[in-house]
Amino acid sequence: MPTSNTLVARNLDSGTVIAQRVTVAERRLDRAVGLLSRSHLDAGEGLLIVPCRGVHTWWMRFTIDIVALDAEGHVIDAVSSLKPWRVRLPRQGGVSVLELPEGTLLSSQTQVGHRVQIG
User: Is 38 exposed, middle or buried (0-12, 13-18, 19+ CB in 10 A)?
Assistant: First the structure.
């Protein structure tokens, strides 16, 4: 099970809250399973995968938004509506990926270059 500490992800550039309930997957098994055991993410939820540079959605049952972050929390990749059975290749400098419900990037105005604080 991912770490149960509930964190909040904030976009420091747009001033919006990206997710109010972020869990962290940092153990190898938690990172490997990710969201595969889930049928959806509720609004306000997120899964932070650390360390992580790229993701796949093989065997997933729903579409997600993803944000790849560097060590300082800068968004180096942002993908809206990543459908099941897709791959997002690693981005240079990436250290973590935040997986979010579809539509979160649009509603939070999050884009490449923005800074995200998770805590």
Answer: middle
C-alpha to C-alpha distance for 103 and 81, rounded to whole angstroms: 7
* CATH number for the domain whose boundaries are 3-118: 2.60.120.1140
SS3 105: helix
* pLDDT score of 78 more than 90: yes
Q: What are phi and psi of 34, to 5 degrees?
A: 50, -120
Helix or strand holding residue 104 (H, E): helix 104-108
- All structural domains of the chain with their residue ranges: 3-118
- Count, residues in the chain: 119
- Structure confidence by residue, pLDDT tens digits, 92-106: 999 999 999 999 999
